[in-house]
Amino acid sequence: MKKVLIAGATGYLGKYAVKAFKERGYWVRVLTRDKKRLFESGPFNAPPLSTEDFDDLFIGEVSDPATLIGVMEGIDIVYSSVGISRQRDGLTFDQVDYQCNCNLIDLCLAAGVPRFVYVSMQGAENIMHLAITQAHERVVADLKQSGLEYRIIRPCGYFSDMGVLYDMARKGRSFLIGQGNNRMNPIHGRDLAEACVDAAEGETLEVEAGGPDIMTQREAAELAFEVAGNPVKITVIPMWLARGLARFIGLLSTQFGDLADFIVTAGELDGVGPKRGKTSLKSYFETLHSAAEKQK
To answer: Which of 127, 140, 283, 287 has the smallest number of CB atoms closer than 10 Å to its CB?
Structure first.
């Protein structure tokens, strides 16, 4: 039985990754700084974990290697989806997405762990001016130079990001940056986690992963209104205005300015890759809708 360390286990994808590796027969060690969050539902229907989903729990800060002594003991594979998503601690992409993963790589090398599975992003070559992309690709570059057996997963967007479209549709109005004509096929966290395990077991060094539905951002917004049962009301934010707002946010907060820059840029570019997922976006919206109706 191979042993895997899951870093980023409290995130949207991380929770699914814990379950996916365990279901494939791995011995699973979870690395987290917040035990409570493991057992809570995450945003946009990310599942809570139970003690049956993993074999060992290690409490530590990925940003502080001194708290991680022994975390690699007996481990065969390290999986990491560590990165900034919705944190509000003022840290930058360089401090989290790069340095934390760099710490894990160093610990892998010191302990002789052979394989490292890392979740980056699809289409990185088109958005290298963004801080988040630079951080991710620095990790990729370090892995390629490390001598480790690396595997890189490049998702074409997450269903958790699409959940924002449902939330807006349920409230009655959706906001799109630009006309929303960029094409995409985001993937459900459960399907992406399965792709990550496949990559960990396979020989392909870099794997792109998308969902089954290719559509424009506008079509996704319209689908959210359909599921929410509300008339379509879409407000377009012109690109020139969105870029100006992103720059203004950057003056107030580097972290949120970088996030805003990423969101604006994502509104311009296509993000389409191989259809590895099976879960449709409509069924995901329907799951969110059912949960929202139960909370009424």
So the answer is: 283
- CB atoms inside a 10 Å sphere around CB 106: 13
What is the pTM assigned to this prediction? 0.92
* Residue 78 near residue 4, CB atoms below 8 Å: yes
Helix, strand, coil abundance in the chain, percent, nearest 5:
50, 20, 35
CB atoms within 10 A of CB 197: 20
Give me the domain span that covers residue 112.
3-158+186-209
CB 95 within 8 A of CB 64: no
Residue 47 lies in a domain: yes
- Closest C-alpha among 185, 138, 202 to residue 279: 185
Sign of the Cα torsion 187, 202, 23, 74 reads negative
Per-residue pLDDT reduced to its tens digit, 196-218: 999 999 999 999 999 999 999 99
Q: How far apart are CA 228 and CA 77, in angstroms?
A: 41
Q: Token match 């449709």: residue?
A: 280
